[in-house]
């Protein structure tokens, strides 16, 4: 049986802390991808220090408002263990065809079937180190990802369990790329929820 001092247990991730870490990761990942892939002009982003690395956050009021508006619902669904994956699609503005898709798949470590764990066994700083590694890898992806064809916009889809509900959210066709090449990036675990990151893009063959 695992044991720890009171101080160690105090530093362990709780469900609430796990959700906050994942939301923070989503926020910086989405902004970083939009910046690194040139979806919006470079001058519409500002550099910030986060987890000891330089990240870029959008200054565009519409993007800021969009992300701010979706975070509360994502938080609710994460706390309930309802999210299966979050998909960010970079799509051609004219044809709406996806050129590149980023998937963040979530696996919950349930205490009992259908019941989320309330207390983890991992130190917060350890989780932050793992998140930093994933964010670094996302930034480095520009070295192998092909150039996007034409001007792109983004589409964000949240894939949930059937009983998730959610006013203002509806069913849509999943984003899919024909002849896609998929690359799995690093994962991180809060000891309550695991996040696995993938990027897929059109194969040149």
From TrEMBL:
Ranges where the HORMA domain occurs: 16-199
Cellular compartments annotated: Nucleus
PROSITE patterns, per database record: HORMA
Predominant localisation class: nucleus
Membership in a protein family: Belongs to the MAD2 family.
Record keyword Mitochondrion present: no
Keyword check for Cell division: yes
Pfam families: HORMA
Native source species: Alona affinis
GO cellular component entries: cytoplasm; kinetochore; nucleoplasm
GO biological process: cell division; mitotic spindle assembly checkpoint signaling
Gene: EOG090X0C57
This protein's name: EOG090X0C57
Alphabetical list of PANTHER family matching this protein: MITOTIC SPINDLE ASSEMBLY CHECKPOINT PROTEIN MAD2 (PTHR11842), MITOTIC SPINDLE ASSEMBLY CHECKPOINT PROTEIN MAD2A (PTHR11842:SF11)
Annotated keywords: Cell cycle, Cell division, Mitosis, Nucleus
